[in-house]
Amino acid sequence: MSLDKALVARVAGLARIAVPDDQLQPLAGELSSILRWIEQLAEVDTEGVEPLRSVHPIRRARRADEVTDGGCREAILANAPEREDGYFVVPRVVE
Amino acid sequence: MSGPERLGLVEARARLRRRELSAVELTRACLAAMERGRGLNAFVTETPERALAMAEAADGRLARGEAGPLEGLPVAVKDLFCTAGVRTTAGSRILADFVPPYESTVTARLWQAGAVLLGKTNLDEFAMGSSNTTSAFGPVVNPWTPPGQDPPLVPGGSSGGSAAAVAGFLCPAATGTDTGGSIRQPAAFCGIVGIKPTYGRCSRFGIVAFASSLDQAGAFARSVEDAALLLQAMSGFDPNDATSADLAVPDWVGGLTGRVKGLRIGIPEEYRLDGMPAEIEALWARGAEWLRAQGAELVEVSLPHTRYALPTYYIVAPAEASSNLARYDGMRYGLRVPGRDLVETYARTRGEGFGAEVRRRILIGTYVLSAGYYDAYYLKAQKVRRRIVQDFEAAFARCDALLTPTAPSAAFAIGEKNDDPVAMYLNDVFTVTVNLAGLPGISVPAGLSAAGLPLGLQVIGRPWDEATVLDVGRALEEAAAFRALPPAVPEA
Amino acid sequence: MGWTIRGRTGEWELVCGLEVHAQVVSKAKLFSGAATAFGAAPNSQVSPVDAGMPGMLPVLNGFCVEQAVKTGLALEAEINRVSIFERKNYFYPDLPQGYQISQYQTPIVGRGRLTIDLPDGTTRAIGITRLHLEQDAGKSLHGARPGVTLIDLNRSGVALMEIVSEPDIRSPEEAVLYLRKLRSILRYVGSCDGNMEEGSLRCDANVSVRRVGDPRLGTRCEVKNVNSMRFVARAIEYEAKRQVDLLEAGGVVEQETRLFDSARGETRSMRGKEEAHDYRYFPDPDLLPLELEPALIERLRGELPELPDARRARFVRDYALPVQDAGVLVAERAAADYFEAVARGRDAKQAANWVINELFGALARRGLEIEACPLPPEALGRLLDLVEDGTISGKIAKDVFQEMLETGGDPLAIVEARGLRQVTDAAALEPIVERLVAANPQQVENVRRNPKVIGWFVGQVMKATGGKAAPELVNGLLRRRLGLD
């Protein structure tokens, strides 16, 4: 599989990463060569193989339904680029 | 001149207990070494005030006979572990000013055990790299760089700062994380010991995530015993990490014998790569011979899917990373680069906040998960991954541990492999299988290359069998008797 | 044939399925230890996990899992022994991780069904496709100040059950009945409080139409924001008619998401806002597959309460109540419990009448839920006992009931304090009868001609005694005095 400029632009849009136009072509080349290298996996016979879900089959206790966290608004907001009245402030979301 | 900064953990601990040395003295010596060693760029953030306060408290506990297992021992922490009140950058511009309000479980355990935080070490951005050249805080210099060589050698990555700091005697030990070789490869490049335990042994809570199913914390030190001591304190079940194992942590330090008599050591034939440098091959053979001479039985084993491990890794890791790094969006913390609207703010923040390698991996990961490609890439990779796990299960039916080289070469110069991502990725060819299968692995310095650079051997164990990995590592350590010092470090 | 839309060119049938998001009743969130209470100060119920801070990891709340399993069992559904949490990746400022943890390919609950009762007395089974657990997002506040949006993450991470029905619904009314019944079952199980105003229960409708008799499915639209019982029928009907009009005019229905505007009573396209979504689902590596022990499932089955249908059948059988009344009583578990507490050891029909007519009426006038009823069932029971043993009349009982509601007083105490005991002493009533007969010769004449108008005298006696006279006794005295016996 080789990626063209348009596909790179689409993927970058999905990933919300700005890529200047003049970098799309070189990036398409780089990503394509990585993908071509990755595609050797197609050689492996995986007929009937279940995809791996976790490396070790460990059973885990679950969280009890108890309030043990929260109530730490200052800590939550401390690193905010912009805040107001206990809220995070973000650029307007178009509804 | 030889100060306390040259002591290993076990030796320093003994002196602290005997009160021949105070934690404050030891810490001051390390802080001074860090200052002298700033040319290595091993630290992103030094925390001298905190270190001295912690050392002072440790001295108090030592005096009162309340010493924890690491009481008064200074350590460096990879800047991927969140430390409450100390900025945690993950080597990225996007988190350059992030100060976590919480502590990672692993570091919390260290402070609980009495350890002293010297500072946060440099790393490849979000732990993505094998050379520590992707850090937003500049590359780390390998202390083994021959004097006058420019550009200098890389320390390996991603935990390059931790490896350089320990190898350069800035600190006796450091934490690292290992997703595809990020502890073992820099340990090999820097001539020190690096261990990655079984996936699930150390909590991932509070460690900035790269690839959740592969990431595992581990330890750097200058001896196997020191590495065991640090890892012991880092390990254990954590209810805040659903992938952490509820298993007791054995006494690795007390149980460390270095005895390999009767152990079956597997030599995986697929690790003999075409074009592998002869000196690596010779080192590997020498290592096997050392173990055989100490009473181990050598067994040829096969791990047939080895050559597919890296491509598998470069699907699984970027896929998980693309999702794990979605939270860095400039909304709640971290860098925000304003744009005309929300979407542009996202794109500019992430475009400018992430470096080239991170952007590249996010794009690969986004692509392999996207509609129409998921089955061909991600699902296929998870199936191959099961094959790789099965390879190891079959091998471990015939042997107790595996011996391999750690990396296919010695350290290379900064910038050397930067133009070709795939060539850079090949650094992890021997280490990445271990992460895919969640196994414990250690790298032990075993010799020098023709150019006088350290080379490491890797021991891989069964799940949860760090004890055997440590014993085999110790046996190699004894046989190798690696005493060489980096050029930057004067003889003691 | 059931409900149809008569178009210009023929009859059209509705095909509708509902997707309901039900907030799980739990103290803590699905993957963190932060509280879930409604209405807290912004960002005061947020853990670093919910804020998507670096290195934070989700740990599954076992109680939320149990709630989902119980709900699945109540919907007669398959419980999947292994289910998988996946990440649904998209960017939105109220989605802190950049992904929602949800279940995609392997939900915790598979196929089930829910039976609705149609007004004609018949029932219909509506298929349940699946139920899965997922986390809620935070809340965006627009318009507080130009150019910015404010984000409150209190809801971020709260557990939701998404319950998806098959496209089995054939009329707007069935949709309402489905939603009511689902809400009733959720409240019985205790897995969701069903509060639509607070957003604990949210509904989207998948609507398509086809010509009557056509087995093929039409293109569907997803109508979002149908968030009150009142609007469900209206939104579906509007959307179905819109599609019929469109198709009959030669147009095609485009598969799209539409928003129901409750103020205008219409649906409108959300196109333009929506770009091509590609959620890049994959199993969340932070969470291992969720495995359920058969023993756990069986324990939860044992904990299920008697559900509304079974309870209604029992009320009809054991209390000899009319199906309608039994249906009214069982809709809310607390109401049914209340009724049973009143009916215990008493005349069940009387108890049902009082609960349905007096109590429900009084609560509705005050805008109260049964849970907030100021009158404990024991007190109402004692009031009924006073009627039963003749201490007061049924009419007086209604006054006493009103006072009990207002003051919370004991019925007997009120009766004594206000002297409301029924007068059952003939000697006390005879002088009154005498006086009235003497004073109203014309009425006496009327009664002799038409004995049915004796009621006028009864009313006068009751009035004279403040309603306390025992009506039977008064009747008897009057009949004798007026020579009717």
Tell me what you see in this structure.
The complex is a heterotrimer of chains A (95), B (492) and C (485). Chain A has 95 residues and is mostly helical. Chain A is 35% helix and 7% strand. Chain A has helices at residues 5-14, 21-38, 73-77; strands at 83-84, 87-91. In chain A, helix 1 packs across helix 2. Chain A is flat, with a radius of gyration of 23 Å. The mean pLDDT of chain A is 93. In chain B, the strands form two sheets. In chain B, strands 4-6-5-10-11-9-7-8 form an eight-stranded mixed sheet, sandwiched between helices. A three-stranded mixed sheet of chain B has the order 1-3-2. In chain B, helix 10 packs across helix 13. The radius of gyration of chain B is 21 Å and the shape is globular. The model of chain B has no long low-confidence stretch (mean pLDDT 96). In chain C, the strands form four sheets. In chain C, strands 1, 2, 6, 7, 10, 11, 12, 13 and 14 form a nine-stranded mixed sheet that branches. In chain C, strands 5-4-15 form a three-stranded antiparallel sheet, with no helix packed on it. Helices cover 39% and strands 19% of the residues of chain C. Chain C has helices spanning 62-74, 172-189, 229-248, 294-303, 308-319, 323-330, 333-343, 348-366, 377-388, 394-407, 411-417, 426-439, 441-449, 455-464, 471-481, and strands at 4-6, 11-23, 82-83, 85-89, 99-103, 112-117, 123-135, 139-142, 148-152, 159-165, 201-211, 221-224, 257-261, 266-269, 282-283, 290-291. In chain C, strand 6 and strand 7 form a beta hairpin. Chain C is built from 15 helices and 16 strands. The model of chain C has no long low-confidence stretch (mean pLDDT 93). With 485 residues, chain C is of the alpha+beta class. Chains in contact: A-B, A-C, B-C. At the A-B interface, helix 1, helix 2 and strand 2 of A face helix 10, helix 11, helix 12 and helix 13 of B. Strand 2 (87-91) of chain A pairs antiparallel with strand 9 of chain C, so a sheet runs across the interface.
